[in-house]
Design brief:
This protein is of the alpha/beta class and 422 residues long. The protein has helices at 2-39, 46-49, 56-77, 84-108, 135-151, 184-196, 199-205, 296-301, 315-320, 364-369, 379-382, 400-419; strands at 119-125, 156-160, 235-240, 251-254, 261-263, 272-276, 290-292, 308-312, 330-339, 353-357, 385-387. The chain is 40% helix and 13% strand. Residues 22-32 have a biased composition (Basic and acidic residues).
Length: 422
């Protein structure tokens, strides 16, 4: 009996002690929760501390949370271990981007100038060559036009035929076929391109042709990109060579120096490229050079880098097939029938791509009349300005090659005012 009473007392004491201990733990737990709210840490609730199904759920939850926490740490640290498909996909994307960049870099050398750089173009008919009495005189005439374009820093020369043609631009060739088309426009196109090319590249880029018979007698353009072998410049024109380089994705280029240079692109042989030369004047470094756009020398160093030559089958194609984005935003025609304004009083609007057009023996009016796309239209309606740049002329006629020199000098001051040059 006494033993039973003693056991009951012991159970009551343990029960009371257990209640006190539970109360103490609850108080401690509440304090921890309050502290967690203050510091921003997380504390498991009482339910989370109770094992269920022998503690399996708690273990699974704990493992899952540890994986998530580890993943978060790796993401923050940038040390994420990626799966094989992810790595292969990223590698493919990187290769695609690299190839695209290489193509864009090379294509950029043949593309239109950047919209940030204002351009000045001139257009003239190839029929002016037809009036020359011999191949030598025709060559000299073309040489005069090349000199004028270079002296006045022209960006594009468009040679158009006086052909009665209403083709879509998609059917128009980018260059005349010199084997089949021996018109004055085809001849002028070829001589202008030849003269603009640096001397050390001409043999590689121009095969023997009867039209080039007298080009050796022409005065050189001496443009900034026509460099001598001993001269150094941050950029040089070059031609890709057939010589194979042991490294894939690299090409040897002749830039007119005693040693060929290496570029970081794989380009077919016989292509003209603009190469950034860097600072290694002795070409001792094995680091390949970069191919840049033809507009880069002007952008970076303010250097005039020659003119582009474009062929158009008629005068309407001069405007329609403009290579610049947005086309020509200001078009000027020159004629003795145009209005007379002194150069100091002429105000040109801000422009991105300016075009100045010249007529042939009978003027721009005849060029317009011969084009089916423009027939019957007034020259004053086609051009934004129709000017007489040489009023009170003493001769009945001014030859086109003479008009180009006169007009480009006439436009120097108005153009410089727009471009902010002194």
């Amino acid at each position: 009996m006494l033993d039973l009473l003693h056991k009951n007392e012991t159970l009551k004491t343990r029960s009371a002690s257990g209640l006190v201990e539970m109360g103490r733990k609850r108080t401690q737990r509440e304090a921890e929760v309050a502290a967690a709210h203050t510091t921003g840490n997380t504390v498991k609730s009482d339910l989370e501390l109770i094992p269920v199904n022998g503690g399996d759920t708690e273990k699974k939850t704990s493992v899952k949370k540890k994986k998530e926490q580890r993943r978060e740490r790796e993401l923050k640290g940038g040390n994420v271990k990626k799966s094989r498909p992810e790595i292969e996909a990223e590698s493919a994307n990187a290769d695609s981007k690299h190839k695209k960049k290489k193509n864009e870099d090379f294509e950029g050398s043949n593309s239109a100038l950047s919209k940030d750089l204002p351009t000045v173009s001139i257009a003239l008919p190839g029929s002016i060559i037809d009036n020359a009495q011999s191949l030598e005189l025709a060559t000299r005439l073309a040489g005069q036009i090349a000199r004028a374009a270079t002296i006045f820093r022209i960006d594009e020369v468009v040679v158009f035929d006086n052909a009665v043609n209403s083709q879509d631009s998609a059917d128009i060739p980018l260059e005349p076929n010199l084997d089949e088309n021996e018109s004055g426009a085809a001849f002028l196109f070829m001589i202008l391109k030849y003269m603009e090319t640096p001397q050390y590249l001409r043999k590689s880029l121009f095969p023997m042709h009867k039209n080039l018979r007298f080009v050796g007698s022409l005065p050189p353009l001496d443009a900034p990109h026509h460099l001598r072998k001993h001269e150094w410049a941050p950029f040089r024109e070059g031609v890709t060579l057939r010589d194979q380089h042991p490294k894939v994705g690299q090409t040897l280029v002749d830039v007119g120096l005693t040693k060929n240079v290496l570029i970081d692109q794989d380009i077919d042989p016989g292509k003209r490229v603009t190469v950034s030369m860097g600072t290694d004047r002795h070409l001792e470094s094995d680091i390949p050079h970069k191919v840049v756009s033809t507009s880069m020398p002007r952008k970076v160093a303010g250097m005039y880098w020659g003119y582009k030559v474009r062929y158009a089958p008629n005068i309407s194609s001069v405007f329609k097939d403009c290579p610049y984005k947005g086309g020509y935003d200001h078009i000027i025609g020159t004629s003795e029938h145009g209005i007379s304004v002194s150069s100091s009083e002429l105000t040109l609007p801000p422009f991105t791509n300016l075009l100045v057009a010249f007529g042939g023996l009978a003027g721009l009016e005849e060029c317009i009349e011969e084009d089916n796309n423009l027939k019957g239209r007034n020259a004053h309606d086609i051009f934004d300005l129709y000017l007489n740049t040489c009023p009170h002329q003493g001769s009945r006629t001014i030859r086109t090659e003479e008009a180009i020199f006169i007009s480009l000098q006439y436009f120097q001051e108005p153009i410089n005012r727009v471009l902010g040059k002194s």
